[in-house]
């Protein structure tokens, strides 16, 4: 627990770090930050996509899935610079409305909006008209639909049995009915937020798989109609500069008779469409395919179109392989990230958090410190409102960098303190423009001109840049630290070294569980590992000890004493600290007395019968002790039971499941406290996790009395903050303690127009006291592009960061709103984001198409994971304390942590002896094999799932037993066996734990075991036990929402 001393500060705040001035501090190739991109498009640097930047697609890939045509092609934007495309070849005459837009996923269905039919669909869907194309496809796949939930037979009125031929002119077509049939029933797992219902008996329903050009669907089984392989694509030069063929237009060439009108009518040929390509099958390419049995054919010689189909043996549903795969996106990003990520290019999106990469700081903060939701910010508030894409940054100011990256340099500007703008107080950074030969500089945030102090003066080179630019971190790097002067200190006094106070519950419950003896034993060795700046030197942090039940016991551990002394405070309603001298001590000076105390505490309270505890007075005592010592610090409170003794802060049991989902739910949603949480501590099974978390919490780097301020360039401002902190005003985020794991999410809003030329700037400055007692400013700078076209915004977003923001926004929302309202708000915002893209950036096409931006194609699956979380959709076994703990935990998570929390990593343990990490599989029970062993990581837990049919040899190598029945499911660590598989598996588990800020306890799950229910809770692509929709169902629902908005 951190203690806030409400430090008054100078108006602006920032941060510094380890000492600067290493020899050979490089001359990086530093790109000008104000030049922007050549128009009109920036290079595409969105998060992992299946497209390789800089290479125009050769065409589109398409495949049919049980009557659904899936087409992937570049989206249209309003401007286009053909760039490297050879435009000298003959071009067809296209209407000049659209240019090839940013990459996207597009899924076509000519049926009435995502329904499951009671009969097998034709390959192309009845009456489906093939779209024209300016290019042949690169690939074509056919996939077998899978069984799904059952449906009743269609009512007779659900579809006309005979439909007249189409004669509607272009532009007058309707591709889907404006309202759903009355017989539809909403899916129970996710309440629709619109009037358009989810499932309609008797209407064909499909999810539309967005796909990418490199995505290959599964090959068809023998019973499928044959797959057609079109010829090679034409050379790149023939790519038209404007609109690529629309999938709702019919290609020229021989076709079957026109299909009937109505919802499934065939679109006519668009004027000016390119001619001369061969006819396409299934709305894609190649020869027309014959229909499947059971349907009247929409093609020649198939008369009975529209006749009711016989009931099939099994219901069919879309193969989940056909919809965007998180694993594919993650693996594609890893494959394309081969070079270090350099931060010198403005508005460049970094690799995904799931990719290992090196960062070279060239003027913007590393993505390990700052990640943005959008690296192309809309120029106007209207554009931001229209898109509904949240504009936010997730900032982790004290993040620890990998060994191959240089930590921020520490800069000392002397007694005058850091150089800053006179008006807005922004700190010196690479964006400042030096003028008048270097005697003044113009602030890039507020445009104010400030004199350069004589000691900081330096001449400019021929480009207008200071000649010492690359010798000064604050002029060439995105992140660095300043040494703060006494003006930045509380009461203008250099701070005292911080203190750690350990407050231990010694009630009957704590002693009986074994916790008291575990803590005292561990602290004896742990006190040698208090945080320090220099590993060679002793820590300056002082320590103090308190035990408590209904009363508090303070201990004098002064080095001159032979034995520790106990002082008891029984008046808990008026808490005070009974001693000053001897309470907070240096560990090395008082080691013998401290060790004597830690040996005696378990013995002193071994026979206690006191069951009641206090809590509020314990916190008060720690605060008073730090106040009396005039220092900052951290409280470690080890508490085991509800504080029901009569005292300030008394709590009562608030577990009332009947309130969940009602307006009174918010009364029980507020957390009573925060920190590590064990719902029922068991010394045997929880000791390892508890001690590892305690060690990390005591040892990790931390800043005290921190104040953070985020400054922005004219046009935007920081308006909202998410995390664990205190705010006295609208700008300063106060953090009693800020450690290396804590992230703060900041939301931005427009207050003026932004300029595409200058972009948007952000500077995060954190003033804090280091663990050595030094006052510092850490500075992180970030520049992003600005755009006036929505297509550019959607080209450069980061879905993982958007999900981090949306989850924190929603989890805070449950404190004041019913959970259902919060869930509906999330679904609606996601639908608006995708509908805006569909309406403004994608090529014109049937409303039956689900079109997703390339960099946001995983937004639906990740959002569904947030909606199914224990905070927003708790199961019957989730306590209020569990929910409050998770809400508090996620409020401080960075992007990597929220990613694995919402979409866990599921690793099949195959070919371990090869040394390479196996490729993960998707979070679905369908991906589990009875003969396999799988490791599932959630960021908080590690599950080892063992199939019932695993080979004896593998069981022997991992568990030391050949029998599935003999595996001990209560084990929390694997046996150490001398074979490559055992060794490699333990290495993988250790590496997973090293990547996370919390120790993940290993839970063994045998197939068909009771623990499998908990394991399946994290298979987030499946329907959840608490009623959450499967990924496939949610994608259907999201498409409904988008169509509702578009209509």
Explained architecture:
This protein is α+β, with helices and mostly antiparallel strands and 1047 residues long. The chain is 20% helix and 16% strand. The protein has 19 helices and 32 strands. The strands form 7 sheets. Strands 8, 10, 14, 21, 23, 24, 26 and 27 form an 8-stranded mixed β-sheet that branches. Strands 15, 16, 17, 18, 19 and 20 form a 6-stranded mixed β-sheet that branches. A hairpin with a 2-residue loop joins strand 1 and strand 2 (68-72). Helix 5 (515-526) packs parallel to helix 9 and helix 11 (799-813) packs parallel to helix 13 (859-867). The model is unreliable at 3-315 (pLDDT under 50).
């Amino acid at each position: 627990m951190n203690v806030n001393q409400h430090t008054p500060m100078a108006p602006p705040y920032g941060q510094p770090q380890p000492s600067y001035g290493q020899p050979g501090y490089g001359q990086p190739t530093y790109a000008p930050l104000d030049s922007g991109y050549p128009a009109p498009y920036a290079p595409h640097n969105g998060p992992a996509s299946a497209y390789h930047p800089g290479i125009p697609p050769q065409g589109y890939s398409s495949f049919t899935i049980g009557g659904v045509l899936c087409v992937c092609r570049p989206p249209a934007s309003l401007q286009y610079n053909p760039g490297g495309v050879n435009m000298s070849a003959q071009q067809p005459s296209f209407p000049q409305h659209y240019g090839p837009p940013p990459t996207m996923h597009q899924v076509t269905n000519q049926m009435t909006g995502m329904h499951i039919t009671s009969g097998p669909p034709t390959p192309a869907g009845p009456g489906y008209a093939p779209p024209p194309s300016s290019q042949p496809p690169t690939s074509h796949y056919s996939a077998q639909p899978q069984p799904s939930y059952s449906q009743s037979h269609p009512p007779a009125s659900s579809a006309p049995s005979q439909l007249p031929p189409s004669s509607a002119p272009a532009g007058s077509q309707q591709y889907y009915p404006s309202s759903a049939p009355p017989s539809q029933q909403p899916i129970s797992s996710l309440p629709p937020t619109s009037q358009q219902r989810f499932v309609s008996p008797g209407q064909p329903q499909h999810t539309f798989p967005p796909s990418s050009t490199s995505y290959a669907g599964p090959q068809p089984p023998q019973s499928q109609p044959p797959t057609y392989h079109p010829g090679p694509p034409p050379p790149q030069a023939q790519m038209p500069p404007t609109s690529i063929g629309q999938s709702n237009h019919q290609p020229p060439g021989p076709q079957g008779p026109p299909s009937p009108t109505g919802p499934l009518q065939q679109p006519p040929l668009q004027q000016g469409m390119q001619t001369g390509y061969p006819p396409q099958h299934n709305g894609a390419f190649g020869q027309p395919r014959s229909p499947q049995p059971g349907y009247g054919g929409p093609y020649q010689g198939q008369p009975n179109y529209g006749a009711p189909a016989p009931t099939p043996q099994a219901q069919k549903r879309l193969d989940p392989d056909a919809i965007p795969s998180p694993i594919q996106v993650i693996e594609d990003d890893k494959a394309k990230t081969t070079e270090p990520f350099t931060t010198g290019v403005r508005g460049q999106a970094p690799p995904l958090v799931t990719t290992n990469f090196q960062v070279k700081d060239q003027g913007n903060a590393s993505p390990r410190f700052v990640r943005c939701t959008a690296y192309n910010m809309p120029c106007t508030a209207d554009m931001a409102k229209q898109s509904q894409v949240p504009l936010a940054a997730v900032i982790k100011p004290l993040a620890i960098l990998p060994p191959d990256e240089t930590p921020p340099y520490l800069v000392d500007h002397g007694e005058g303190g850091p150089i800053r703008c006179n008006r807005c107080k922004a700190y010196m950074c690479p964006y400042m423009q030096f003028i008048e030969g270097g005697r003044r500089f113009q602030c890039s945030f507020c445009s104010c001109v400030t004199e350069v102090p004589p000691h900081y003066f330096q001449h400019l080179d021929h480009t207008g840049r200071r000649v010492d630019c690359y010798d000064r971190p604050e002029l060439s790097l995105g992140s660095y630290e300043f040494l703060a002067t006494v003006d930045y200190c509380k009461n203008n006094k250099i701070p005292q070294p911080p203190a750690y106070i350990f407050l231990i519950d010694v009630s009957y419950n704590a002693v009986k569980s074994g916790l008291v003896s575990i803590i005292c034993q561990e602290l004896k060795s742990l006190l040698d590992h208090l945080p320090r700046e220099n590993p060679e030197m002793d820590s300056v942090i002082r320590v103090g000890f308190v035990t408590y039940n209904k009363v508090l016991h303070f201990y004098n551990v002064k080095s001159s004493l032979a034995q520790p002394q106990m002082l008891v405070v029984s008046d808990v309603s008026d808490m005070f600290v009974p001693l000053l001298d001897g309470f907070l001590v240096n560990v090395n000076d008082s080691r013998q007395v401290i060790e004597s105390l830690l040996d005696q505490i378990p013995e002193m309270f071994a026979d206690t019968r006191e069951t009641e505890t206090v809590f509020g007075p314990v916190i008060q005592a720690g605060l008073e002790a730090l106040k009396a010592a005039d220092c900052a610090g951290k409280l470690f409170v080890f508490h085991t039971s509800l504080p029901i003794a009569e005292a300030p802060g008394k709590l009562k049991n608030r577990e009332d499941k009947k309130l969940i989902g009602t307006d009174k739910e918010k009364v029980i949603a507020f957390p009573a406290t925060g920190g590590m949480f064990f719902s029922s501590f068991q010394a045997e099974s929880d000791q390892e996790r508890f001690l590892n978390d305690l060690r990390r919490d005591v040892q990790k780097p931390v800043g005290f009395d921190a104040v953070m301020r985020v400054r922005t360039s004219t046009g935007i401002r920081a308006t909202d903050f998410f995390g664990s902190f205190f705010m006295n005003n609208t700008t300063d985020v106060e953090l009693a303690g800020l450690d290396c794991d804590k992230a703060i999410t900041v939301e931005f809003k427009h207050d003026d127009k932004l300029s595409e030329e200058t972009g948007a700037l952000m500077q995060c400055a954190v003033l804090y006291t280091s663990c050595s007692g030094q006052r510092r400013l850490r500075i992180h700078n970030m520049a992003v592009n600005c755009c006036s076209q929505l297509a550019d915004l959607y080209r450069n977003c980061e879905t993982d960061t958007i999900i981090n923001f949306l989850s924190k926004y929603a989890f805070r929302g449950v404190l004041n709103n019913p959970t259902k309202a919060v869930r509906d708000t999330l679904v609606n915002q996601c639908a608006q984001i995708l509908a805006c893209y569909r309406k403004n950036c994608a090529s014109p096409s049937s409303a039956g198409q689900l079109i997703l931006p390339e960099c946001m194609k995983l937004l639906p699956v990740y959002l569904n994971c947030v909606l199914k979380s224990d905070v927003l959709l708790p199961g019957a076994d989730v306590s209020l304390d569990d929910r409050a703990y998770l809400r508090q935990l996620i409020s401080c998570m960075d992007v990597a942590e929220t990613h694995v929390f919402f979409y866990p990593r599921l690793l099949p343990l195959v070919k371990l002896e090869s040394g390479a990490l196996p490729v993960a599989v998707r979070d679905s029970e369908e991906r589990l094999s009875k003969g396999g062993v799988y490791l599932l990581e959630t960021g908080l837990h590690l599950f080892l799932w063992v199939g019932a049919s695993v080979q004896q040899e593998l069981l022997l190598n991992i568990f030391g037993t050949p029998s599935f029945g003999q595996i001990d499911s209560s084990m929390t660590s694997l046996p150490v066996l001398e074979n490559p598989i055992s060794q490699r598996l333990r290495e993988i588990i250790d590496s997973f734990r090293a990547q996370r800020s919390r120790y993940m306890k290993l839970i063994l799950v045998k197939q068909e075991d009771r623990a499998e229910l908990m394991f399946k809770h994290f298979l987030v692509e499946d329907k959840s036990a608490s009623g959450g929709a499967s990924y496939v169902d949610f994608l259907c629902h999201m498409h409904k929402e988008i169509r509702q908005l578009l209509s």
